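Suppose a classmate hands you a notebook page containing two proteins, each written out with its sequence and a corresponding row of structure tokens. How would you begin to make sense of it? This section walks through that situation. The first entry is reproduced here exactly as it would appear on such a page.
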Amino acid sequence: MALEGSANIVCFGPFRLDLKAGELCQDGERVRLQEQPFKILKMLLEQPGEVVTREEIRKSLWPNDTIVEFDHSINSAVKKLRLALGDTAEDARYVETVARRGYRLLVAVDGGQETNSGVGGAVAATGESAGSNRERAQDAGATAGRLPVPRRATLWLGGSLALIVAGAGIAWVLTHRRAPQPLTELTQTRLTFNSGENSVETDALSPDGKYLAYTNPDGIHVRLLSTGEERLIPKPPGDASAAVWSFDSWFPDGTQMLFDMVGPGTQYSMWSVSVLGQAPRELRGGAGGWGVSPDGTRIAFSPGFPNHFREVWVMGSQGETPQKVLTAGEKDVLEDVHWSPDGKRLAYTTKPSAAMDWFNTAIETSDLTGADRTTIVSFVSSWMDDFCWLSDGRIVYSRADRPSVFNVNLWQVAVDDRSGRPASEPKRFTQWAGSLIGGLSASADGKRLVFLRRAYQSQVYLAELPTEGKKMSAPRQLTNDEQSHRATAWTGNSQAVLFSSGGGIFKQGITQETAEPVVSDPQGPWVPHLSADGAWVLYMMGDPNRVSRLMRVPAGGGAPQMVMETRPWWDFNCASAPSSLCVILEVTPDEKHLTVTAFDPVKGRGKVLRTIDKDPSANIYVAAVSPDGSTLALSRDRETEMHIRLLSLSGGPDREIAVKGWQPIFWNGLYWAPDGKGLYCGVPSRNQGGTILYVDLNGNSRVVWQFKGIGGPVWGVPSPNGRYLAMENHPINSNVWMLEGF
């Protein structure tokens, strides 16, 4: 629809655009909007719901063939527009990115006003009520944040990163969503506005609903919600000052908080932290806390290793008289323990210990002797992030249905706190798209709920590796189109990076601004690798936790073909010519072993080269075959520091190297250097987003690149000629929101 001549004022959502004055207002307040973002907004308003192509934008902004880096400039202008609207690419409420085409306006437009009327009473052409518009408008400023995991920060190192892995192959869903329609009249308020480098890690609302406590890399913050006044609580001196603190719960008097401290070696300890200025006090070592009972006399906790808690204990508020309450099943772990409103029962989540099955979760309850267990809700192939038990008996939980693991919503179910049995059917009460929700806590009266809204967008960076007498060049961003990318390989000539991204596999030359498709499939192909001879691009289709299909497509282009079906798998890759070996690391049906099996890109499955005992405590295995095909490097999580096993595939001896002072490698984080003399290792860090190390075969390490900020997995893929390193990182942005009226 043409805007000029029909209206001077155009309204959409909570915004009012004065075309004549070139001014944008939100709820009566002017929003700064530069010329190019203004022009793009005008184009979107003229075609609501339709795709405005990048070519159309280019012609509008630079009609005289001005020499400009168009892609970068358009991306920059769209980002400025989104910033003005309080919008994000990951959690789009107004401007949706249509992958590799352009942009679409997601809201209805009211263009019939000639005078200065406010947007508060404007009703969109869809017939939605003003209340619905208001709820959508309040939701619009959300910048989603950290990945959906239990509240404590170190659990992010396992569970949440596993979600990134699961979600990476199906991120195409984000490019097909439409504007969410709220189900109920809810009030949302954003409480923190932290940047990606200073994202909120854990959070909790005080029992009286007046204070928000949260942690970020700076430490522990307490904010008075009525005024925004905030102060930073000092950490104790010594080793604790360099540790990561994660919030468990408030004590009911509102003057103390229960925290976990994660120090060197991923060891947990529990601390009481005062808001009145007293020094933090350690309550128990070697354990992680869950929460304080409603009367403040008891604390629920779990001994052991994060993400592998198998027992729940209860002790006095000062750490006295610990008693075991319950133990998980043989193959299960326990998480997210909460007290019932009357303090007589505990609710907790139980899930399989194998990361491959973490989408099968249940919320259960038991009494304080571990007896009278009940199941509240259970999920199959669905991600349950976090929950809390409100004073009115409702359990509120966040849940995402697969394959849309990025669309997490809030659900509620009534529970009889005496029997611990459900008293109603589960009911969803939000309808958000593109949100990752966790960190749930509520005020004692159950009227206020706070949560973390999280987002991440992975990008590929490129650097020239150091040569004799030179340092590595400063990394530059290779991809730049607001999609999330997962780079895992290079083309054989070392001139282009292969990566998976929303509905396809792409390659992008090291001197190119845009990528070209290799495989297009809405089912989400992922993890591209190159065959040993460079003739084929190999990739996976399907769920790695179940039967998947290993596929091939000619490196020069052509039709995809299936190589073979696989069992649940952890990794696959190929050596380099003249070796022709490709291997896949799979889990045996009894889940007690891993097999290293050779395969041919054309002929399919070959013989089993090695069978390895699977450590029941490990969640993640990472493997890489050496360039000459003689050795498999294998690493796993659940260790206090990085170890890499070098397993012979040719009958020689095995050996192991330890990399002191560094955490274990995470998903996709292990790549051989082309000369076979060392490995590039991606290490998630607690105080930074992650580090890429070069580790020689004696265990000596040096930092290649370190991503500053909170983030997920990070890794580096060297080019076949050894000149370049393609680096992947997953920066995370996380902030706290408050919900009322639910």
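The notebook's second entry, a different protein, reads as follows.
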Amino acid sequence: MIASKQSLSFRRSVPGVAAGIVGLVKGQVPDLKIAFTGPPRTDGHTIYTGNLPLNADDDLISMLWGHSLHEIGHILHTNFDRLNAVLRHETVLFKQTHNSIEDVYLERRLTEAFRGARRWLCRSLEIMDRKGHIRSGTDSPTDALLCFPLFWGSVHVNGFDVLLSYLEGNRAALVEALGENGVCRLEGLLAQRLPVVDSTAEAFELTQDYLDLAREIEQENQDEEEKDDSDPDSSGDDDSDDDSSGDDSSDGGDQPPQAGDDDAGNDDDGRPSPSVFDNEDDPDLDQDPIDSTGALEEVSEENADENAKAGDRLAADSSSVFSGRKGRPGQGDLDRFEMLRQESSGVTNVMANRLVRLMAKARTPRRVTGTRGRLHVSRVHRLFVGSDRIYRRQQIADVPESCASIVTDLSGSMSGNEERMASTVLIALAEALTRARIAFEASAFGDDFWIVKGFDEPYKACRSYFGGLDQAVSGTTPLGESMHEAAMRLMQRTEARKIMICLTDGAPDNGTLVSDVDQKLRASGADVLGIGIGCDAVNNVFKNAVVVNDLSDLGPQLLNELTPRLLARAS
């Protein structure tokens, strides 16, 4: 999986943004924890942002920012003790209506304290609208009643115009249930109270008053209907005293409905219309009108699909020539491994020590002077020459986690000195990566494709197979197909930086395929490095390559190529 810059930036920024906003409003640095997992929520101490994959795209990051800021609003303004105590005994309708009112209130307060929050909240709503994760609020009268405060407040209090169409449809559904006059009365209550709600307690009070008013409106409508039904026909018919005993029409069975006998408030079959409180404990309503969790999951799946497609592109037009992976290349030879390791120990020690030092140095905080941080007294004099770089702060380099896949050529031409050199180079690389604690996989190919050491296998348990590579030398040079096989596993790794290293002594069977896989790996964010074993043909195949004629060449050349790739920021 390729780590995106957006994903890394979000992971670095959220803790500081959360602490900054909460500290600014509350006047003290809060003890907050950030969990990059889902669903989005908070208990007042930990903010769960939603799942953060390494390859998150712009849409997903925008949604994560919106949801994270919303949860920061809860930490600032929600009384969690009161919330849990009250909602424990309330109906689903009350809980969700209160949640709508609380959300409008806290987002209003949040955007007042931090103007940048509005952009992220709006962007998040736009994406959820596009993905179809906002409930219409028209599924039932009860649904219309509980969604109305959220849509009305989001549009008229917080100015989130993206919800205007939802408000219009939701309001029309509520008018069908309570009438135009009744909805106007609810709007009046919200207009008077919702813009000035200032606590969870006041949100509870408004919720209760809102539902009480809805009950009152509904009861008044029912009383009016019953009154109309019980009134005698007083349409002004002066012939009511005439003798009509013989008039069959007096039975009224075939009479059309009169003005005072309409079935307002009834279904076509005469049954009463559904009440807005019929489903107040319906578990189907026990979810937010704006389904942030569902939207995040959908966008995350899209990101995962894109990452899988990157791997699929590696397989395009490159069917494998291998009959099936045979497992290990030979039976292993621990004695030969120890002999080869001793031969390479000088180079290995130099490589490993330098690599470990460079990575440790990169991760060590260093002090830098700039325009923010703690005042650096010895730099105050710069103010007199117009420079504001008088602050000092610690800076930690962004060194991402890395992994490597090493593919070694064991074709027939690699017999003798070439195989010995390739095995020694492979062992030197394996030793250096192991000491630097960099995950790696070693594979080899000849007339088949073998795994010498898997990513998750301990190096110590596989050492004998590094010494037994001479047992597997055979076949031609299907380097492109081997790179494809190795790339499919490399792309499944979660480390931000991925490197493929190919050891070969000559030209591949299919140079076009090698170039194609090389190009697609680099386009997906991985690095590819070719190492020529006593042969410079790699320069014609790989964009980045080094040639090793003697083991002493390995250390300087490989470190010059490998170190920048291990220490570079993720792309």
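A careful reader of the second entry would note: The first helix runs from residue 5 to 26.
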